[in-house]
Amino acid sequence: MFKAFLQGKPFGHPLHPALVHFPIGLFILSLALDIISYLGLTSNGLFRAAFYAMTIGVAMGVFAVAAGLADRSDIRLDHPARKTANLHMTLNLSALGLFVINLFLRLRQPDLAITPFVYLLFSLLGVGIILFSGYLGGTMVYDDGVGVGRHRRYTRIPRRTIRVSNRTAQDGWLPVCDDNEVQDGGTLRVVCDGNIVAIAKQGGEVFAFQEFCTHRYGPLSEGKLADHQVECPWHRSRFDIRTGKVVEGPAKVDLKIYSAVIRSGKIYIR
Known about the structure:
It is built from six helices and twelve strands. It is of the alpha+beta class and 270 residues long. It has a five-stranded mixed β-sheet with strand order 1-3-4-5-10, with no helix packed on it. Helix 4 runs antiparallel to helix 5. It starts with a helix and ends with a strand.
């Protein structure tokens, strides 16, 4: 439940992108105040004002990081954006650490008239790292679709990907996994010799179809499953899992479907 809260599901909107604006804005504000103070343009408490802005920024940053970690936990290990997400996380934690150190240094001299260069340097490094990390966050959303529609998800993300080979096929039927590995209303992702297939179970029946949406390649095994329809978690295209037909756009191309059966407690596809 706490993870769902951090992901913004109770609000119907992702929480991380809503929170990150506060620490970024406050850290930039503290840097601007430090620069003005360092240049000696005025000495009317700007050093202390920068300290307060940074303090609030760190506090908000902790919440933003927590929400970001919750979102990261839902990115598949084999997702192409996983490495970017790890770098994004590392940079944000590093920047937050720099600002925490900066705050502790300032606590010893809270009433300076001019910001010392070393404090200014910490702020410059921290803001620079955060801005680059923010750019990476944007690429994950706009280029890789990470987190798009995630707050609307109804089904659990498959925690693992099943890898099989056509060499194990029996009379054209490929054994995938035990029947009890896919719960009713649940999904599973299968990779077979480079082909990626989604397996879904509903009403005791199993269905198999291509994993990626024909619109913008959203992962269908992570979408909402109801009434024999799967909804893409990115842009909400819906497909009939029995026929592959588009039920609702923006997708216009039908899904490729596969035959799927349950035999002797195992799921087979072909």
